[in-house]
Design goal:
heterodimer, A: mainly alpha, 8 helices, B: mainly alpha, 0% strand
């Protein structure tokens, strides 16, 4: 049983479980699935700086902070209790491409040669982590939600603005992965 | 003067609610703070799924954006189908919360932010290989450098809030 759970879970199991979070949050207390809102709550709680956008009762939304706290604990449980002993299996075309950038470590969920404290002070590491994080935070709030709020909650509730947002998420991703990322990798 | 201040506060609240539906807490009930542990439990399950299905992997995101793997499309597609069926059932049978409250849905209003912000978010998503949820999971599983990404994302959110009135919506 444990070995069975340790191997990577298939997409249909993961997708179904994530889909069930939508009714679970609604039935547990009328809550809408949306994770990037927590970034805003963090601003509202720590640096409201008299900005109207951050002047609201964030404590009323503290359920969401408990929810992401749970994600953190769950990830820890999975990493310690159900570790996958094998390196991550990646499409050979991607392996070839990453090889040309000097990335060949598949021992972690992230490429250790790019995402680590050591690489934080290299040009590409800085752009990826500091620049990428900034774009995620700025973009998700500008769009009014991220993958959870728009692509999952919004689409599940058949909201066409969420479909627009999801298509733009994907378009931005295609652009970055295929055209911009190769340039950053050469730095 | 005080009337003007009140109006402004109401307007702000309306803006917050209309442009940012993910932030709406529809429940009007008051509960002790420890009731929030039920959301912690759902979060724990979510965190385990994130890690075990490799949804938090930078490599899986790169595959997705290069059409090299079906995995992420399968995950998101299945989640949307299951979510949509669940919401349809909740609406049809007028399912109530466990506290007996009616379940509310808020329509999302279109604004240009969904296009411009969506594109910006997509760039960041492919660059870091993580959307906001996976950032928390990666920190939890011990990739501590992702704390930098999280702080940067909070900074990005703050900068958006600061320039919000001057951005096209």
């Amino acid at each position: 049983m444990k070995e069975f759970l340790q191997q990577p879970w298939p997409w249909y199991v993961a997708g179904a479980l994530i889909g069930l979070i939508v009714p679970a949050l609604l039935i547990l207390g009328n809550k809408h699935f949306g994770i990037s809102a927590n970034l805003r709550h963090a601003c509202a709680a720590c640096f409201p700086s008299n900005i109207n956008f951050f002047k609201y009762d964030w404590k009323k939304e503290s359920w969401n902070l408990f929810f992401v706290g749970g994600i953190l604990i769950g990830a820890l449980i999975a990493a310690l209790g159900l570790p996958d002993p094998n390196p991550i299996v990646v499409n050979p075309d991607l392996v070839n491409e990453l090889n040309t950038y000097g990335i060949n470590d598949y021992s972690s969920m992230v490429p250790q040669q790019l995402v680590s404290w050591d690489s934080l002070f290299t040009a590409r590491g800085l752009i990826m982590m500091v620049g990428g994080g900034f774009l995620v935070g700025f973009g998700s709030r500008y769009a009014g939600g991220c993958t959870s709020g728009h692509a999952i909650m919004g689409l599940s509730n058949l909201q066409w603005p969420s479909l627009v947002a999801t298509c733009c998420f994907m378009a931005g991703g295609f652009l970055m992965a295929n055209l911009i990322l190769p340039l950053i990798m050469k730095l | 003067m005080s009337t003007e201040k009140n109006t402004q506060e109401i307007l702000t609240d309306f803006e917050v609610r209309s442009l940012d539906t993910v932030c709406i807490n529809e429940s009007t009930q008051q509960h002790p703070w420890w009731y929030n542990f039920k959301y912690l439990a759902v979060g724990i399950l979510f965190g385990i799924v994130f890690v075990k299905a490799e949804i938090i992997s930078w490599f899986r995101m790169q595959e997705m954006f290069r059409f090299q793997s079906f995995h992420m499309y399968g995950v998101i597609g299945t989640a949307v189908v299951v979510g949509a069926i669940s919401i349809a059932l909740i609406k049809k049978f007028k399912v109530k919360t466990i506290h007996g409250e009616e379940i509310h849905f808020t329509p999302k209003k279109f604004n240009k932010g969904q296009i411009i912000g969506g594109l910006i978010f997509g760039l960041g998503w492919a660059l870091t290989g993580a959307c906001p949820g996976p950032i928390f999971a990666q920190i939890g599983m011990g990739i501590t450098v992702m704390i930098v990404v999280l702080l940067s994302a909070i900074a990005g959110t703050w900068v958006y809030g600061y320039f919000r009135d001057r951005l096209p919506h």
